[in-house]
């Protein structure tokens, strides 16, 4: 049998579909397991109590998750130019983002950033499958915190399963109450952390601790706390399985070169238990490297058996990789019976990402988005100007034979400093401005500034002429905005 083929009894083959697999099945064999058929560490109550696992990938995952959690709580306490680094001030309609102030008018920039992030995620998925889910997704990070708390209070996965089955006693009530109390505290802290992106963090925590927070602020903190408690404490993998759209469509981005957590069925099958140092008998009895210890299943947070092939429930956390490597070490076998491998890795086929249309397509999309964001940021003005004509009358004639048009200028200082602006009206014809040309605006301030433009009736042709208002930063003339409008005369 060629090395690239999968053995007939390999779990990578979905026997229930047909004896003659379609080309799609040959490339990405997916076996859909319902929660009933999943062979994980489910208890009769439906909870999955997975074993804690140590190993290289778990260290990496813990490090990434810890970094995410530390950043989540710490970012609102970082100040840049005296302002919170990230603050979405909805009441003032200002968004502070690392020294840049964004206004609702800048939403196109935010949209570009989100689109670029989405394509970045797709790009990474082409290489590494669902690493986002396993290593950086907040749902996974918070679930692992909650499981960590649960393990400290209720013990190992076996003890937790026994506690589930045990009838209610003083000890069970004590453990469960302590666990839920700690889950509740973690949830409240998370609620505060989330709201601190909308309300200055230093004020928020003090107000919450002293009970001085407003009704709405307190309600929102509780709302997010309850969501966290339910998500990370109760729903856990159900969120990934039933609510997250990414788990449903991520397989579309996979190709034969995508490295994802995979069981090497050709090497592992036929699986079977054995004693250590039974190598000779093992080979004679045609057993593969899988000793059927079931550890890969017991450590799986979504309760699946990766030996059944690629499944959408797999969040690529690598726990089964570490567990299996531990077993392989004990039996003195090569590591990576389960590992981050692509279909081509299993077949021993060499490949180049440069020939992958997905790699090139997503990569090009990310680069284009970054260029668009750069151009958008570069062309962003720090002044906002909106010219509105007086709707009551097109023009007025004065006693001294002049024509007047009036306008309302909405000028906003989009920076976080007080600014002085020079107002001017530009045209080839002799127009003059009846208003103070110097305007001082505080940080973020917007004014409605009424101005009148005047012209000699004999010096301008009749009908509509175009004029241009401009507002220039006195100290920084490169910061200038202008807008054209019409001037009417009889
Ligand atoms: S199959 Fe392995 S990588 Fe996938 S979720 Fe389960 S333990 Fe994590
Ligand atoms: S951990 Fe490895 S050896 Fe044990 S059952 Fe899973 S695949 Fe087989």
UniProtKB/TrEMBL annotation:
Q: Its domain of life? A: Bacteria
Q: Which residues form a coiled coil?
A: none
Q: Name one GO cellular component term.
A: plasma membrane
Q: Where are the transmembrane segments?
A: 67-87, 107-128, 181-201, 213-232, 359-377
Keywords, in A-Z order: 4Fe-4S, Electron transport, Iron, Iron-sulfur, Membrane, Metal-binding, Transmembrane, Transmembrane helix, Transport
Q: Name one GO molecular function term.
A: 4 iron, 4 sulfur cluster binding
Q: Residue spans with biased composition (Polar residues)?
A: 1-19
- InterPro entries recorded: 4Fe4S_Fe-S-bd (IPR017896), 4Fe4S_Fe_S_CS (IPR017900), Cyt_c_oxidase_cbb3_FixG (IPR014116), Electron_Trans/Redox (IPR051684), FixG_C (IPR032879), Ig-like_fold (IPR013783)
Region ranges (Disordered) = 1-20
Q: What SUPFAM superfamilies does this protein's entry cite?
A: 4Fe-4S ferredoxins
Using the record's annotation, list all stretches that form the 4Fe-4S ferredoxin-type domain.
281-309, 313-334
Q: What is this protein called?
A: 4Fe-4S ferredoxin, iron-sulfur binding domain protein
* Organism placement in taxonomy: Bacteria, Pseudomonadati, Pseudomonadota, Gammaproteobacteria, Alteromonadales
